[in-house]
Specification:
about 190 residues; mainly alpha; TorD-like
């Protein structure tokens, strides 16, 4: 894998981590709108063009409402963005325990002020970013982490997100994520 490909993938995971950690800021939206799509006919190029278009039309207030409805809600949002939930139907299950074991091998621990469990989509995308940008070969490789912790559920999560009727912006993120994860699946065959 080329260094450019690795950096691009790490940056994509960083973007996804930021988009799921909280509703995007105006600064993040401005960065998305400013993206120059160099390969507009490629599968990811088409997704970038769509994302840029949607980001150019949306307001911060709308995004905050979409984020609240999708991921927080009164008792919970329309989607529950946790690996354990998508794999078992329950929170705090075995997939989270297995993830914590691999995070410990990497020397990563949950920040004591963090409210979300480590299997939140934002946290897992950020770990992929860290692994991809690490010097040398980490104890848990990007391939191992992806296949064990992301592959079992992210396609389903992004499919559900792309199907939402309450959010134009996050629906575009769902489509973007589906194409990206399909590329990752082909990367790790």
């Amino acid at each position: 894998m080329s260094d450019d490909n690795k950096v691009w993938r790490a940056q994509t995971y960083a973007l996804l981590a930021n988009l799921f950690a909280q509703a995007p800021s105006q600064i993040l939206l401005d960065h998305i709108v400013a993206v120059e799509v160099t390969e507009p006919e490629s599968p990811m190029g088409k997704q970038w063009l769509n994302l840029v278009s949607v980001a150019n039309k949306v307001t911060i207030a709308t995004l905050e409402d979409e984020y609240q409805t999708l991921f927080i809600g009164v008792t919970h949002g329309e989607l529950i963005p946790y690996g354990s939930y998508y794999q078992t139907g329950f929170l705090m299950e075995e997939p989270l325990a297995e993830l914590r074991t691999d995070l410990a091998k990497l020397g990563l621990v949950k920040h004591e002020d963090a409210a979300e469990p480590e299997d939140h989509i934002s946290a897992q995308c950020d770990v992929m970013r860290l692994i991809l940008m690490a010097e040398g070969t980490p104890i848990v490789t990007d391939k191992d982490f992806f296949l064990h912790h992301l592959k079992p559920w992210l396609t389903n999560f992004f499919t559900d997100l792309a199907s939402t009727k309450t959010s134009e912006f996050y629906r575009a993120i769902g489509e973007f994520g589906k194409v990206f994860i399909n590329m990752e699946l082909s990367e790790y065959r």
